[in-house]
Amino acid sequence: MHCSSPKMVCETKIVADEHDAIPGTKKDSMMVSSSHMWGPSSASTALNPVEDRDMKKDVVFIREFERGDHVEVRRIFNEGITERIPNTVFRGLRQQPKTQFLYALLTLMCFVVTKSFALTCCAPFILMGARYYYSRKVILGYLDCALHTDMADIEAYYMKPTGSCFWVAMLEGRVVGIVAAQGREEDNTVELRRMSVDARYRGKGIAKSLGRRVLEFAVRNNYAAVVLGTTAVKMAAHKLYESLGFRRTARSDDYRLPGMSRTPLERLFFQIRHSRYRLQLREE
Ligand SMILES: CC(C)(COP(=O)(O)OP(=O)(O)OC[C@H]1O[C@@H](n2cnc3c(N)ncnc32)[C@H](O)[C@@H]1OP(=O)(O)O)[C@@H](O)C(=O)NCCC(=O)NCCS
Asked: What sections of the protein cross the membrane (predicted)?
């Protein structure tokens, strides 16, 4: 067994689940070594049962979703989405020069109309407050939408259909990370979705191993490419996908999240950047 990242050596070891040893199952129908495409993969290392017993405490297992994981999976997903609210309000504004200009103009207009320094000094706080209100409303609306569609019934949505799957990363008997793969027959690609790691366990290579699991799944199932879309504001998600070999194929600064109403006020106080990534596995 070896670790994919030097920092994991003394912290956390990541190993494959038992399902890798069972050829012929729906999800692992082909055993194809593809590590050269995205670097060495500790997630595909075979597990020695004796070693397994001895190391269970500090080992991260990547395994397929089971019904009992539901509550923890929803918690990790929930936390991963809600932490985007402050990120979108403050960091997100740095990515929106037009909005910065508009807010400066509104503050100036406030002074011209009221001639009051006190009111003008309050204007940026009022604008940021409105930004927080609308970001919270839209992001919680998006979360609610997800929790009532695929995340409401992971078994039906990801585990039953051929070409889709959902994995969890387990540490000390608890779920610490999640990721889904959704096959798209129309263009022979698989979409990587719902990637999230419990905030207490980040920076240990868990997301990278979950990502590799999706790539291995795509190769085994003969998909031509893995694609994904992200509205993550922090660099971590973008660096993660780039480090796995993904390339950005499109970017939009005015993305419409599911559940948005697009009223003028919502458009003034909520904008989100959306990036699409693709990793080509083979030529079509
Ligand atoms: C993005 C996220 C999944 C990363 O999880 P993680 O387990 O901490 O990531 P890893 O430790 O596997 O790091 C993988 C790569 O990501 C990048 N990365 C991770 N954390 C980073 C950070 N804080 N800053 C910059 N890059 C970072 C690095 O390139 C790293 O590779 P390296 O260590 O070889 O340089 C995690 O921060 C998260 O769950 N965020 C909230 C939900 C989210 O935004 N999901 C993505 C939605 S598309």
From this structure: 101-127
E-assigned strand segments in 203-282 = 225-230, 247-252, 274-280
- In angstroms, the CA 272 to CA 36 distance is 35
**Tokens describing residue 133:** 């209100």
pLDDT tens digits along 121-164: 999 999 999 999 999 999 999 999 999 999 999 999 999 999 99
Listed by start position, the domains of the chain span 6-78+148-280
Give the CATH superfamily of 6-78+148-280.
Answer: Gcn5-related N-acetyltransferase (GNAT) (3.40.630.30)
Q: Cα–Cα distances in Å, from 46 out to 19, 116, 251?
A: 10, 70, 39
C-alpha angle 175-180-184 in degrees, rounded to nearest 5: 170
Mutate to test the pocket of ligand 1, among 82, 179, 208, 240 (most ligand atoms within 8 A of CB): 240
pLDDT band at 220 (very low <50, low <70, confident <90, very high): very high
The response to whether residue 197 sits with its C-beta less than 6 Å from ligand 1 reads yes
